[in-house]
Structures are given as C-alpha cells and as structure tokens.
Amino acid sequence: MTLFNDDTIQTLKGIVFVALFSVAALEISELKALSTFAISPLIIGILIGLFYAMTVRSRFSNSWQLGILFSSKRLLRLGIVLYGFRLTFQEIADVGALGIISSLLIVTTTMIVGYFVGTKALKMDRDTALLVAAGSAVCGAAAVLAAETVLKSKNYKSAIAVGTVVIFGTISMFLYPSLHAMGLLPLDIKFYGIYIGSTVHEVAQVVAAGCAVAGAAQTAVVVKMTRVMLLTPFLLIMGIMVNRQKETPKITSLIPWFAVGFMGVVGLNSLALLPETYVTSINTFDTFILTMAMTALGMNTQVDKFKTAGLKPLILASILFVWLAIVAYIVVTF
Prior knowledge:
The chain is mostly helical. Helices cover about 80% and strands about 0% of the residues. The termini are far apart.
C-alpha cells in the first residue's frame, strides 16, 4: 500500500516544477538592471511561463499538468486570500474621503467603460474585455488572476490582459512623474500621491512613481491598496453576473469565497494580532504563491491564440489608460 496515489505524486511533481521556475522569477525581479522598471515577480513569472510554453513544453511530461493546473487555480485562490495581509481598515480611513471616493470612481467607471467599449465598440469577447478592464481598474496582474478564476476563462486571455498591464503600467510609471517634474501635472504632494494611487496599474509601479516625488509614496500606496480592497465587491458582482444565466444557480457558485476570505484577512490584519515580522513573512510567502500562479498560467497558455485576439485588447487598454488619467485628474482637482 502506497502513501500517495499516482495522481497525487504527479501533482506534487508539477507543483515543484512550477516552484522552480517561480524561484527564478523572484531572483530575476531582484536584478539591479530591472529595479528601475519596478517589474514585479508576477510579471516575470508569466513571461517565463510563456517562454516555456513556446519552446520546450512538448519535451516535458504531460502528467505534471495536474500540478501546473493546481498552481494556477488552487494556489491562486490562497494567494488572493493572503493578499489581505497587505492592507488594514485603518490605512483606508487615514487616506481620507477623497482617496476613497477616487478609488471607488476609478474602479467602477473603468470596469463599466472597459466592458462596454470592449464588447460593443471593439466586438471583443466578454472575458477578454473584463480581464483587461480588471487589470486597469483594480490591481494589475493580481486582479486579472482573480477575475480569471471567477470567469473561468482561457489562460491565453489572462496572459493577454497581463501584457496590457505590463505595457501601460510601465508607461504610466515613467510618464506621470515626468509630467509632474515639467509642471504639466500641477498637483501638490498629497494630490499627486492620490493621483498615482488611482491610476497606476501594479503596486510595485505605484511605489516607483510615488517615490519619484518626495513624500508622495505613502499616500499613493494607501490609495492603491484602497483600490485593492474593492477587489472583493468587484469579484462578487462579477460572480453574480457570470452565473445569473444558469437555470438554478447555487449561492456557492454565485459567490467567489476566496474574495470573502480576502476581506476576512484584511479584518484580521486590522486587529494587529500578529507581530509585524510574521505579517512580513506571510506577504513574502504570498508573493511566491502568486508568482507560482502566474508562472503556471503562462505554462498553460496556448500562444497561437494571441494572433486570434489581434490588436483589440491593446486598443482597449490604451483607451482605459487615457480614461484613468483624465478621470483621476478631474477627481483630485474638483
């Protein structure tokens, strides 16, 4: 009698396989040559996964696929739940009404514009439009992953959406500090921080753009994390919309419970029951889990499907980039 059956053993092998690639992604993200661009290990992970899919995937055992799927689905949900340790309710309160209103308007309007422009004007499929919108509106790659779990969409669609996050997040990270330095973005330190937190895609990119103006980084990060907080209601609404067409939808299918878990962890973190060193360690572990999920997503991607999507996702992302810039400026200067 064996302790583990064959499927379990192959799943574990696949998980270890993904983990090795993810360690490489973490190491690459720490290179000094990339530090200027504030590229998160999640982005590096999906790029490595895509490279694997395009080159050597056929040479490796298909039996490891169980572990790769486990990493892209189950570990992803755990990673989103633990993401709550990066935020507290006190931090949200400290940013003030303007920061909260700005985040709420940005997330809501960007999702609506992204959906209707994508599906109606550009004739994109629903899932790709929502994934691109989620990456722009909420928290970049992590939001794309979370939305992909609710939508149950194809991996290549998530990879496309993450690609738009990389492109326009990087542009915004360099553009807004430059405009501020030239006097073309005439905002004081607090309002500049709110603007950056409301518009830039990835948390790491927000930190980089915020640090470019002395004293703005903290406000920028807190506003950004307020957008992250809206991930839960956003996923709940998306879950209801996606499942409402079923004849007898169950409550368990309507609610993405990992999103509820995320809010629960935020509440736990707000109580400050765990020492700061523990929370730091959990966040490091969470980054690794999310990197594994992104790497696995890249490994599972059918790269040939990218041609089918064409330029429409890029066009939608550029429209949302302009939308974010204009709406956020109106909010902070109103």
